[in-house]
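Issue 218. Parser rejects a valid record. Input:
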Amino acid sequence: MANPLFDTLFGQHRGKNTPFLHLENGDSLSYAAFLDRAAQFAGLLSSSGLDAGDRVAVQIAKSPEALAVYAACAQAGFVFLPLNTAYTADEVSYFVENSGAKVLLCDPVGAAALKSITDGCNAQLETLDANGAGSFADKAASYSTSFATVDRSGDDLAAFLYTSGTTGRSKGAMLTQDNLLSNSEALLKEWRFTEKDVLLHALPIFHTHGLFVATNITLLAGSQMIYLPKFDLDQIIANMPRATTMMGVPTFYTRLLGDARFTRELARHMRLFVSGSAPLLAETHVQFEERTGHRILERYGMTETNMNTSNPYDGERRAGTVGFPLPGVELKITDSQTGETLPQGEIGEIEVRGPNVFRGYWQMPEKTAEELRSNGFFITGDLGQIDQDGYVSIVGRNKDLIISGGYNIYPKEIELLLDDATGVLESAVIGVPHPDFGETIVGILVALPGHTLDVDAIKSEISGSLARFKHPQRLIVVPELPRNTMGKVQKKALRDTYADLFAT
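Output the parser choked on:
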């Protein structure tokens, strides 16, 4: 027996003195030094009374040490549970209690607020700050830099990732070693990563994108990362000439386009820009290609499945689509009521099946049965369609579907028109309660810099392209759309804000 995740991603780099992480302060950390630290962390955790399969929850700032905790959990056979650093103590309490985590790592600043939580859950509390200092690091310093890797199988759990919980309590998605490895191996080939690559990494590592996509691919390829604590425009521009690839959310790219320093010459050494976690505006695709000569590669994934599709590395990267299913991933469009597969071109619910699909939701067998079919297909909750060339497009979330006067209305169709309207930067279309229609359509607009929107003119501009029942009843201009940490527009927050707009 062995440990596929650790052996494949980390173990191959033992004793390797080439750089792994290039840090914001100019320092570099070799693979060997990184793995030495991970081994010390694994030793400390293993001596703390944890057994293989126990959960280790972390709510800590991005740092080399934070990443080494992930490696340590893989090496010692623990389940890694990263938590958003923005979560409150009450939210963290739920995750620790629900997961049964035996250890919680937090920033020293938040330790006092979390102490009563870990005491109540009989869990250990340790600290680790953005500089890699804290009680956890202090205790680990006395442990050996050699650790005997614990045997695990590909079917064993490697990580829990909790969903955002926009409807009810967050669900703990159980991801196996094979889930993570199969996806990384597919993406490595699809995106042509090699040991010559240097990834510009400014994503958080509590999320699939920054951890299980960006980091795992780098490890698998044996390449390097410019490892920034967060997206900082000056740092991105300063470091881009040293990089070959970048992964980001749409906000990264719009902010780059807003800076005159971001030029074709600056991006000359880059071979690939990848975007995900939220839809990229078609206008951003066009502007980016005009500015740099590069066409951003957009892909589609989610917490429960890692990545499902990708636009091609070679071939047309089609704006407004997320490309084709990855090798080994099956994707179909189904009727959300009957589960029957729909004809090509029709809009329906996206279902996926493959080695990337999670095992289920922790301690939620009923919810697992609702969303994970017995034949292995996962009902994603996303609405999409497949065009005649096989490209997949995401239309929206099933819960975002608007039913007005008995008609099904897909917000994306209206958003595309609003985004193209005069002076509009971006839009979000939601359904709100209406006394006559059940729901009606409201469009939330953000203006381009320096523009004042004329909502009546915009209504007139889009009216000829939409059936009457799809016309927004109201257009509202706001300074910006509410987003989560990964850049996704939070439509639930908008629906809550405007729920009483048509109240009588």
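Fixed in the parser; the record now loads. Residues 31-46 form the longest helix (16 residues).
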